[in-house]
């Protein structure tokens, strides 16, 4: 069963967003939300999820390079759990190690200027997270 999936790259200043197509195969950048406090951020995301009709949400999980969870990962897990409670949707976390670095590198290679890059890197990172998640879901033996 295909469904639209929303991915969120949690930053301290911005939330990068990516959205899958209706088939659940291709990730597309969806924009950035400026952080306004956890409670308001969660409410805005829940409203957005309803408006665009997503069936699932993926939150980037910033694990350490050795795969362990630090403070940021625990905050992301708590954010995902709260989002699950508010939306009633399945909310999963996805290992996002190096997604921001990869997004930045891609934008640099595309000669995107520093000012414009700031606004794009968060949604590009969310897009990388989502595409990896979608690809894994389609692979044989995936849950």
Helix % is 40-55%
By CATH reckoning, the class would read Alpha Beta
The global form is globular
Low-confidence runs of at least 5 consecutive residues: none
Counting DSSP H or I runs of 4 or more residues, the number of helices is: 4
Structural class: alpha/beta
What does this structure look like?
The protein is an alpha/beta fold and 143 residues long. The protein has one domain (5-138): YqgF/RNase H-like domain (Nucleotidyltransferase, domain 5, 2-Layer Sandwich), CATH 3.30.420. The chain is 48% helix and 22% strand. It contains 4 helices and 5 strands, in the order βββαβαβαα. It has helices at 38-52, 71-87, 99-109, 114-138; strands at 5-10, 14-20, 27-34, 56-61, 91-95. It has a 5-stranded mixed beta sheet, sandwiched between helices. Helix 1 crosses helix 2. The longest helix has 25 residues, at 114-138. The mean pLDDT is 85.
Question: Notable features of this structure?
Answer:
143 residues, 48% helix, Nucleotidyltransferase, domain 5
Secondary structure elements and pairings:
Layout: E1 5-10, E2 14-20, E3 27-34, H1 38-52, E4 56-61, H2 71-87, E5 91-95, H3 99-109, H4 114-138
Parallel strand pairs: 1-4, 4-5
Antiparallel strand pairs: 1-2, 2-3
Summary?
The chain has 143 residues and is α/β, with parallel strands linked by helices.
């Amino acid at each position: 069963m295909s469904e639209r999936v929303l991915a969120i790259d949690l930053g301290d200043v911005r939330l990068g967003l990516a959205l899958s197509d209706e088939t659940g195969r291709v990730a597309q950048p969806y924009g950035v939300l400026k952080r306004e406090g956890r409670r308001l951020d969660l409410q805005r995301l829940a409203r957005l999820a309803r408006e665009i009709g997503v069936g699932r949400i993926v939150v980037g999980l910033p694990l350490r390079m050795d795969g362990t969870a630090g403070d940021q990962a625990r905050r992301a897990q708590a954010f995902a759990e709260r989002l699950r409670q508010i939306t009633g949707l399945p909310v999963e976390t996805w290992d996002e190690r190096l997604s921001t670095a990869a997004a930045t590198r891609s934008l640099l290679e595309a000669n995107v200027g520093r000012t414009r890059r700031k606004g794009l890197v968060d949604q590009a990172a969310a897009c990388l997270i989502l595409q990896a998640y979608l690809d894994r879901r389609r692979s044989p033996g995936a849950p």
